[in-house]
Write a structure and sequence with these properties.
alpha/beta; 9 strands
Length: 274
């Protein structure tokens, strides 16, 4: 007897972000075939003043996005639970914009991201010192959790790809531990992002050592493939679930209507299609 679907793909995109390919129906079809209960679309949010406009929907396209996901939800009704979410960039000062944006539609899952590689972010915050930039990343990650705007913090060591040769986890450990203490105090979840294996430092985000620190602090984890093409929906989930298990986690989480749900890791593994 095939186990009932349990998991959601909690991080995927649409062509509105200008760097993803494939229509929402195609992403949903892959989620259904791979044994997922649902899929939550989390396309890159619009930002004010043209901030990084080349990698996100324009402010005037937000309603188009809402309608696009509603159409997919209707098309897959009864087979797959399709949800509207958002991946919203955080940087100090953007909070009022995001608060208003998030109130415009019934979002099911809101990811908070620090995209250190975006040109407009770099102009504001990069001073030429890689270590200082790494420290600032974790400061902004902490502030994003403390803002109360997000359910989950996406790919929460993405900064290691800024300059892999300069990434030294042990050197940064005190910085990371202080950030995780602050994040744990907020109750916000953190993501294990499977797309990290495709980046310049090829491992999931975050790394096993950071996952272990998160587990020590009781920070819940949501898995996301960060799919920018339909074929990547659900990619690496079993490997990610094993990494969580190795770090000492017993459950994996996801969000529905901005409320966290959890299922046992072994049940989650068994629910996925081979």
């Amino acid at each position: 007897m095939t186990p009932a679907p349990l998991l959601y793909e909690s991080h995927c995109h649409t062509p509105l972000c200008k760097h993803a390919f494939g229509e929402p129906d195609e992403y949903a079809a892959v989620a259904l075939a791979r044994g997922f209960k649902g899929i939550t679309f989390t396309c890159h949010c619009p930002l004010p003043g043209g901030f990084s406009a080349n990698v996100r929907m324009a402010p005037g396209q937000f309603d188009d996005y809402v309608g696009m996901i509603a159409a997919t939800r209707e098309a897959f009704a009864g087979g797959l639970d399709v949800r509207l979410g958002l991946e919203s960039d955080f940087y100090p000062g953007v909070e009022p914009w995001l608060e208003k944006l998030h109130a415009r539609a019934p979002l099911s899952h809101v990811l908070g991201s620090i995209h250190y590689q975006v040109g407009d972010y770099r102009k504001l915050f990069y001073t030429g010192d890689v270590f200082s930039y790494q420290e600032l990343y974790f400061e902004h990650l902490s502030l994003s959790a403390e803002s109360g705007l997000f359910d989950t913090l996406a790919h929460p060591d993405l900064i290691k790809n800024e300059s892999p040769a300069d990434w030294d986890f042990e050197r940064l450990r005190p910085v990371i531990e202080r950030a995780l203490d602050r994040i744990a105090a907020t109750g916000v979840a953190m993501e294990l992002n499977t797309s990290g294996v495709q980046k310049s430092l090829p491992e999931m985000n975050p790394s096993p050592p950071q996952l272990a620190l998160m587990r020590e602090r009781g920070i819940p984890v949501v898995i996301g493939a960060d799919a920018h093409v339909p074929e990547r929906v659900g990619d690496g989930y079993v490997t990610a679930l094993r990494l969580l298990e190795n770090a000492g986690y017993q459950e994996v989480s996801f969000f529905i209507d901005r409320k966290r749900q959890s299922v046992p890791i072994q049940d989650a593994i068994e629910s996925l299609a081979d």
